[in-house]
Amino acid sequence: MESLILVLNPKTLRSKLLKQGINGPAPSSFLYGNVPDMKRIQSTALKVPIDERSVKEDHISSLFPYFEQWRNEYGPVFTYSTGTSQMLYITQPELVKEINLWTSMSLGKPSHVSRDRRPLFREGVIGANGSLWAQQRKIIAPEFYMEKIKIPKTAKQAQIMAETHIRVDLDLRSFSADVISKACFGSSYDKGKEIFAKIRALQEIMAKQGLFIGIPGSSYLPTKNNQKIWRLEKEISRLILKVVQERREAKTEKDLLQMILEGANNESLRLQSTDQFVVDNCKNIYFAGFETTAISASWILMLLATHPEWQTRVRIEVSEICEGSYPDFNMLREMKLLTMVIQETLRLYPPAMFVSREAFKDVTIGNIHVPKGVGVWLPLATLHRDTKLWGPDAGVFNPDRWSQGTAGACTVPQVYMPFGVGPRICLGQNFAMIELKIILSLILSKFSFTLSPNYRHSPTCKLTLEPEYGISLIVSKI
Fold first, then answer.
1. Could you list the residue ranges forming a coiled coil in this record (predicted)?
2. How many domains does the chain have?
3. What does the pLDDT look like over 435-444, one tens digit per residue?
4. How far is residue 89's CA from residue 87's CA, in Å, rounded to a whole number?
5. Which of 48-62, 150-164, 165-179, 377-391 has the weakest average pLDDT?
6. From CA 51, how far away is CA 140, in angstroms rounded?
7. CA distance 150 to 142
8. 256: phi then psi, degrees, rounded to nearest 5
9. 184 belongs to an annotated ligand binding site
10. CA 74 to chain centre
C-alpha cells in the first residue's frame, strides 16, 4: 500500500500543477522521476575544456544543463520530479519576491532534502522545521547579534600568504575554522580540526549525490558511499560529544556552545536525546560557520586578482581607514568599497546554489496553487545573473552596481539571496560579513596578488559552490 502511495502521490501533484498550465518534462521512471533525464542531459551537455574557460563565463549551464534546457523549453516556472518528490522550479521575479517575504511556516525545509542530507544536518537548526526549528533559532540567534560578535585579534592566517604561490582556499578554511571555533565554542582550531576534516569529508561524499535525491530508501542501502557516510557520522558525533563533555566539566564563559547545552535541557522541546540535539546543532554551525565563509573569501580574492583596479581601490580604502592598525567595528562599517566587492562576489558566486522549500499544506504563491507536498526550488545563480534584473552586464564583475544599495543594483531586490530568504535567513550573516571584512582587509593591507598560471577556473557544486581545483595566487608583500 505504501509503495502504491509513493507512485500515485507525485502523479497526483503533477496533475494538479499541469491543470494550472505549469508544464515540465514527463517523468521517465515511476520510481526515479526525471533523474535519468537529468543524468542523460548532463552527460551529453557541451563541455568547455577547463583550460579554455574564462572567469567571466556563466557556469550555470555546465553545472545544471537540464535546468537551463527545461527553462528554455517550458518558461520561468516549470515542474519536474526527482525520485518520488514533485518539484516546482521558479525564476519568475514576482513569485520569488513573494516567497522571499513569506513568514508562515507553511513553507519549510523540504522533507526529502532533510532526509537525504540527514547525516550532515539531522534535526539541527538548518534541517529542522516547525516548533523545533523555531525554538532552536530562538536559542542560537542571540549569540550572533552584532554586540556579541568578537573580532578575533589575530592575523596569523594572513601571514601564511607571505609565500609566493599559495592555495588560498586551504588557508582560508583554516582561518575561518579557527574564528568560528573560538567565537562560538571557546576552543582553538587545533582542538576542532579533526571535526572540521571529517565534516568536510562527509560533505564531499554527500555532494556526489548532487540534485539526484528524493529516491525513497536510497539512503538506507548499504552501498559503499552510504557505509562511509554512516562511519563518518558516528565519528563526528563522538568527537563533538568529547568537546561537550570537556565543556560540562570546565567553568567557562557563556558562548554559543553553552547556550546549546542549556537549550538541550529545555523541557518544552521534548527531545528524545539531548546529546543528539547538541551534536546536530554543533554540526550545523561547524558546517555553515566555516565552509561557506571560507569559500566566499576564496572567490573574492580570485575576482580581485583578475580585476587589479578594484584590488587597488579597496586596498587604498583599507589603508586610509585603518592607518596600519587592526580593524575594529567602526572601521569595518566604513569599508564601503570592500562591502560592495563582497556583495558582488556573493551575487556571482553564491555559496548555496538553491533556496529550497516544501509546501506543508496547500498554499497560493502568486496565481499558483501549490499543493501540499510539492517542493519549491529557487536557483540563486540563475536569478543573480538575469540581465532583465541586473542589466546587460549581469555576468560581469562590477561592484559599482552596489553604490546605491540592493535597490539600486537590481530591479527586484528580493531576488538577491546569498544568505537565504524569509524567516529562515542565515543566522550568521552578520558574523560572516565581519569575518570576510577582517581577513580581506588584513590580506589587502599586506599583500598584492595575481592569479597563478596554475589556476584552473572550474566552479563545482559540492553542496556549496566552490573552486574544483582551488584558488592559486601569486602573492607579493607590499
1. 229-267
2. 1
3. 899 889 988 9
4. 6
5. 150-164
6. 44
7. 13
8. -60, -40
9. no
10. 27
Dist. CA 413–CA 49, nearest whole Å? 35
β-bridge pairing 368-370 and 375-379: unpaired
Q: Which residues contact 126 (CB under 8 A, 6 or more apart)?
A: 109, 284, 287, 288
Residue 247 placed within a domain: no
The pTM of this model reads: 0.88
Report residue 438 as a C-alpha cell: 577582517
Q: pLDDT digit string (tens) for 72-122?
A: 999 999 999 987 889 999 999 999 999 988 888 899 888 877 677 788 888
Provide the residue range defining the domain that includes 374.
1-105+353-417
The cell for 299 is 572567490
Identify the residue whose cell numbers are 582553538.
Answer: 188
Planar angle of CA 168, 174, 175, nearest 5 degrees:
85
What is the radius of gyration, based on Cα positions, of the chain? Answer: 22
DSSP string for residues in 30-61: TTTBTHHHHHHHHHHSPPPPGGG--TTS--HH
- Asked whether the CA dihedral 137, 150, 352, 288 is positive or negative, the reply is negative
Residue with C-alpha cell 546529546? 275
Domain of 365, CATH number, reads 3.30.43.20
Strand ranges (E), 354-428: 354-359, 363-365, 368-370, 375-379
Burial 411-447 (b: 16+ CB within 10 A, else e): ebebbbbbbbbbebebbbeebbbbbbbbbbbbbbbbb
Cell match 563526528: residue? 236
DSSP 257: H
Residue 281: partners with Cβ closer than 8 Å, 6 or more residues away:
124, 125, 136, 140, 260
Identify whether 358 is part of a domain: yes
The three-class DSSP label of residue 128 is: coil
CA distance 415 to 92: 9
Question: In this structure, is residue 406 part of a structural domain?
Answer: yes
Q: CA-CA distance, 441 to 319, in Å (whole number)?
A: 9
Degrees, nearest 5: CA angle 88-93-94: 90
The three grid cell numbers given for residue 383, joined into one nine-digit string: 536569478
Q: Is the pLDDT of residue 384 over 70?
A: yes
Q: Cβ distance 38 to 65 under 8 Å?
A: no
With respect to residue 188, please indicate whether it lies within any of the assigned structural domains. Answer: no
